[in-house]
Each structure stands twice: as structure tokens, then as C-alpha cells.
Specification:
Elements: H1 8-12, H2 15-43, H3 49-87, H4 100-141, H5 150-180
């Protein structure tokens, strides 16, 4: 009979679950700070609409490259952990009254729910803001002036803020579900 070394950490949390919890926690925290701090500050800063859309674009581009790969890794980690928990002989119930496998599957589902929300709710707003930002940058490069709908830009940035808050809620749900699964 072979004996295997286990660390104290692996008795508490598997590596995959740790990757899932940390990954979704990072993205949830980022989206929370974006929706409740950065974007409201940007909206109340008094920037003219052309500068506002450029500032939004900078913030968005910095998050766009990092968020998706982290979420894919977290999703795969939660799915792997859910599978391992479901084939375990002992059934373990979490503080929420669910089995570990069920709770980790729900965490995965919560991450997956962000995909249609992003595609159908967030993406049209991003497209409008990116188009306005591109128009401003092109006009600035040519040394000309461009007309930007100030009210429309502010409404779109505020809509992006609210929709990011919904995504943050989905990711926070996944974080809590993953954190409390044993």
C-alpha cells in the first residue's frame, strides 16, 4: 500500500479550488472597485465628454486583457473541483447546506452567467463608447474638433458602471460559493 504525502493546505483546500477562489475573487474585487469607485469618480470629475470617453477607454483597456484569462482559469478550476468533489466517496455538506460538488458547480454556473450578460448587455455599451473614443482620437490626431454627445457619453459610462456592478455580483457569488465549499 502506497502512502502519499499531503500538505496541511491540501487537507483544507485543493489547488484547483484555490485557483478558482483567488481568480474569481480578483476579478470580483476589480469589478466592484470599478463600479463603485473608479467610474463614479470619473463621472463626477467634471471632465468634458471627449476627455471622459478617452479616460474610460484607458481604464477599460487595462482590464480587458487581464480579466478574461483569469476567469477562464477560475472556471476550469471550479469545474475540476466540482468533478473531484462529486466522485469523492464521503459526501460533505457545506455551511450553505449543499454538497461540495453542487456548490462548486453553482460557482461555475455563476461565472458562466456573466458571459451572456456581457455579450448582450455590456458589449453594446462598450461598442458605443469605443466608437466615440476612436472618433475623438482620430479628430485629435488630425488637429480638428469633433462633436461628442456629452449626455450620451455620460449615460453610457453610467450604464457601463451599473452593468459592471451586476457582473461583480455574479463573480462575488461565485467567490463565496467557492470559498465556503469544502
Amino acid at each position: 500500500m502506497a502512502t502519499y504525502k499531503t500538505s496541511y493546505l491540501s487537507t483544507f483546500v485543493t489547488s484547483a479550488r484555490l485557483v478558482g477562489v483567488l481568480g474569481v475573487g480578483i476579478v470580483a474585487g476589480y469589478d466592484i472597485s470599478l463600479a463603485h469607485s473608479a467610474l463614479p469618480s470619473l463621472l463626477t470629475s467634471g471632465l468634458p465628454a471627449d476627455r471622459l470617453v478617452i479616460a474610460w477607454d484607458i481604464i477599460y483597456n487595462k482590464s480587458e486583457a487581464v480579466g478574461a484569462p483569469i476567469l477562464v482559469a477560475a472556471l476550469i478550476a471550479f469545474l475540476e473541483s466540482a468533478y473531484r468533489a462529486s466522485v469523492r466517496k464521503a459526501v460533505i455538506y457545506t455551511p450553505l447546506g449543499l454538497t461540495s460538488g453542487t456548490q462548486l458547480a453553482l460557482a461555475s454556473f455563476s461565472i458562466l452567467l456573466a458571459v451572456p450578460h456581457t455579450l448582450f448587455s455590456v458589449a453594446p455599451v462598450v461598442w458605443r463608447l469605443k466608437t466615440a473614443g476612436k472618433n475623438v482620437e482620430e479628430a485629435t490626431a488630425k488637429g480638428g474638433m469633433t462633436y461628442v454627445d456629452a449626455v450620451g457619453i455620460r449615460e453610457d459610462v453610467d450604464a457601463f458602471r451599473k452593468r459592471t456592478a451586476v457582473r461583480a455580483g455574479l463573480f462575488t457569488t461565485a467567490f463565496v460559493l467557492g470559498l465556503t465549499a469544502f
